[in-house]
Design brief:
By secondary structure, this protein is an alpha/beta fold. It folds into two domains: about 180 residues, Rossmann fold (3-Layer(aba) Sandwich); about 130 residues. It is built from 16 helices and five strands. The two termini are about 35 Å apart.
């Protein structure tokens, strides 16, 4: 694969483009134009598909005058040179607040959760009348990251919503939210992009340097998420997946030298992100092994289609264990990777342990 510079994707507040999700946009527009806009919306769906990008798009639309704004259209698009766009992008709009995981002032590191102090900032915003237009807007990006105290604090606002205030809660794991929070929001469920649309986006913007075979693979392992595709490109995910497949194809005769080399290559790069990319690909592959095999030949049209190489490997591995066997392996490795993040285990050793587990599973 040719080396090429791939620009980092724009943060959601700075991104003027939204790919797909026309149904979600129309649902919001219809509510806004009806004059009965619900006070809280839950934008739910997988990571990286554009939920936060849509939330900022909705916010800009309302902050620029909403349904009465002649410059708005059926996609909620706003040009980057629009004054409202510029102020939202810079974080300088007085009627918009974003709540997300913050920096711990003591440790100078990003917190692992949204804390109650982050939510309490809302009180000052809602104590004032909107400075410019009709709405004050609060976007919570990563709502599932709220700890219990933060969740209870925001629940109070949802139960007794301040006037002229709109809450946009962005979540990739809505099941982790308090049921009382979910019940007070209007759900806006967003779906992954179709493969054809994501493939075109990869070709035109995300990774135009890829050839057709590499683009097809990236489309497949990105599962409809432009954000995931961008992250995989940044971490060399296509080449990494190829190395992963080579090792898996050697099972149960594990190529331990290749595993060590793979572990070293991950450790030499931006450790945390490279490790997450590799373990995420391995978890993803195991999920496909289990789920696609469970669907069986009679359901071949559902879900992602494996290529010939993956199909041959899965068929061979399934002879060494049934679905329950491989589901247990998937669960075991998922717990191992989650524990690594929680207690800072040594990444290379975790990778060695993971492939040893797979070797044992394939030899059973």
């Amino acid at each position: 694969m040719a080396e090429a510079f791939t620009p980092a994707p724009l943060p959601p507040r700075e991104n003027p483009e939204l790919h797909g999700h026309g149904q979600a946009v129309q649902e919001f527009l219809a509510a806004a134009r009806s004059g009965r806009l619900h006070h809280a919306w839950l934008l739910a769906g997988p990571r990286g598909i554009g939920k936060a990008t849509l939330a900022f798009r909705m916010a800009r639309f309302l902050l620029a005058g909403g349904a009465g704004n002649e410059e708005s259209d059926e996609t909620l698009y706003m040009a980057p040179n629009h004054p409202v766009f510029s102020r939202v992008a810079s974080g300088g709009h007085t009627d918009l607040m974003t709540i997300e995981r913050s920096i711990n002032e003591k440790t100078k590191k990003m917190r692992s959760e949204i804390v109650v102090g982050d939510v309490r900032r809302i009180s000052r915003l809602v104590s004032l009348t909107p400075g410019e237009e009709q709405w004050r807007i609060i976007i919570v990006d990563g709502t599932e990251d709220m700890n219990r105290n933060a969740a209870n604090a925001i629940l109070k606002y949802l139960e007794e919503p301040p006037p002229q205030t709109l809450f946009l809660l962005v979540s990739h794991a809505p099941a982790r939210l308090l049921p009382t929070i979910r019940s007070r929001c209007r759900a806006l469920t967003m779906r992954p992009l179709p493969d054809a649309q994501l493939s075109n986006l990869i070709a035109s913007q995300i990774a135009p340097e890829l050839n057709s075979e590499e683009r097809a693979l990236l489309t497949s392992i990105s599962e409809g998420s432009p954000g995931r595709a961008s992250s995989l490109v940044e971490q060399g995910g296509v080449a990494l997946y190829d190395k992963l497949m080579q090792i898996l194809e050697s099972l149960p005769n594990l190529d331990i030298r290749a595993v060590h080399k793979l572990g070293d290559s991950v450790a030499k790069r931006d450790g945390a992100e490279a490790f997450r990319t590799l373990t995420g690909l391995l978890e993803w592959w195991l999920a496909r092994l289990v789920c696609d095999s469970a669907r069986g030949a009679g359901h071949a049209g559902q879900g992602r289609q494996m290529n010939a190489r993956e199909t041959a490997l899965c068929q061979r591995l399934m002879t060494s264990g049934d679905l329950e066997h491989w589901a247990q392996v998937w669960e075991k490795l998922s717990r191992l990777f989650a524990r690594t993040e929680a207690v800072n285990l040594e990444p290379k050793q975790v990778i060695l342990n993971a492939f040893t587990t797979l070797q044992q599973a394939a030899g059973d």
